[in-house]
Hints:
The chain folds into two domains: 15-214, Rossmann fold (3-Layer(aba) Sandwich); 229-466, Aldolase class I (TIM Barrel, Alpha-Beta Barrel). Helix 12 (303-312) links the parallel strand 10 and strand 11. With 502 residues, it is an alpha/beta fold. The longest helix has 19 residues, at 15-33. The two termini are 45 Å apart. It is 37% helix and 14% strand. The chain has 20 helices and 15 strands. Iron/sulfur cluster (SF4) binds at residues 254, 256, 258, 261, 263-264, 295-296. Iron/sulfur cluster (SF4) is lined by residues 254, 256, 258, 261, 263-264, 295-296.
Amino acid sequence: xxxxxxxxxxxxxxxxxxxxxxxxxxxxxxxxxxxxxxxxxxxxxxxxxxxxxxxxxxxxxxxxxxxxxxxxxxxxxxxxxxxxxxxxxxxxxxxxxxxxxxxxxxxxxxxxxxxxxxxxxxxxxxxxxxxxxxxxxxxxxxxxxxxxxxxxxxxxxxxxxxxxxxxxxxxxxxxxxxxxxxxxxxxxxxxxxxxxxxxxxxxxxxxxxxxxxxxxxxxxxxxxxxxxxxxxxxxxxxxxxxxxxxxxxxxxxxxxxxxxxxxxxxxxxxxxxxxxxxxxxxxxxxxxxxxxxxxxxxxxxxxxxxxxxxxxxxxxxxxxxxxxxxxxxxxxxxxxxxxxxxxxxxxxxxxxxxxxxxxxxxxxxxxxxxxxxxxxxxxxxxxxxxxxxxxxxxxxxxxxxxxxxxxxxxxxxxxxxxxxxxxxxxxxxxxxxxxxxxxxxxxxxxxxxxxxxxxxxxxxxxxxxxxxxxxxxxxxxxxxxxxxxxxxxxxxxxxxxxxxxx
Length: 502
Ligand code: SF4
């Protein structure tokens, strides 16, 4: 059985430091007080379950919440949550380290520290959390003191694309869908006498990537049996972007084949829908708002039936992904009755030529119909996601995007265009495609800004952050180490550029 015993509490007599410590404790206490569904359990094997982004982001993650519940449900295992502090600069000053919400126990006192990683840029958050916890960031440094420092386990959506840059920090990476792997992990933790044997044991099991043994070649992702579906919220809190919303997985995976997407059909064998008979009874009576989560929820054949049951019961609804080609009067009417005021969908490619090229298949008429439905059902805003910088994109494609946006803006009550640079991901047909030069992407954005000024709201990630994401998405251990350097240098773009050598 795993144990470790260090205390990272750093008591200080400095009154400013004491005030900071008290403030962090107050924040945790007040958020806990506002939660419904928090779990408390004493068990021999305790996981510190960390999210490498702040509380409001982590608590919006259905995967994070689901793992929390699963660890509590296993015999003799428990979990407490910790998050990247809202203000990392302040948190790096003398404080009581990174502590869990449930008991205020230092994260480093747990035998296992587990992180859920959704995106490449959260790698810096992993480093910061470990630093704040007083745990050596590198697995190699920890292994020399294996009885002193916790085992660090990583998992989450990032494992579907490229978890290799996370390798230097992790003792073990849980690849893909974790539901079936967790009991195996817990069993191995209980049975193996020391870290070396444990890692050797896990490395032989499917779904576990042990970077110190596998090197930079991870094993394939695991896909959980359908009977584990759906994941659903354990804790409801007003302090998330989806304030107070109960989240439940309406389906997992996707049957479509967009060439840039890690969730395309090849990732998990297509869409696995959850039937209304299974989903609806899991919605608690007190849930006022219900969010249906999945990569392609609008492809669910029984979506209207599920939405109708929810809105007829007087609940608000949210759907995580609206495909424009699936929207019709019935569906949008149900969403409007469920309180929808912003219709969010994606065009992705800047022009029809590019959308066809990457198998996105959304057509102009689908988007125009979405704009009309948005207007006719009294919604306030149409929000459209677009990718620029796809392979082979020309000025003519960007010009077509500007014209399409103006056409949509003439129909929709208001239009907001969220433009992100294309980042090629591993395990997709567009893997290894280069990232367009930042200056060229900025020029295209400047053109769109001029064309759409006053008529369309333009937002999205700055291309420079797309470049960082690209370097990590295509990276190896070296890029992970650059993330560590950057996190300690404040996490700004200049620090990333220095560390990544761009
Ligand atoms: S972008 Fe959406 S529709 Fe396309 S493969 Fe990915 S999840 Fe499916």
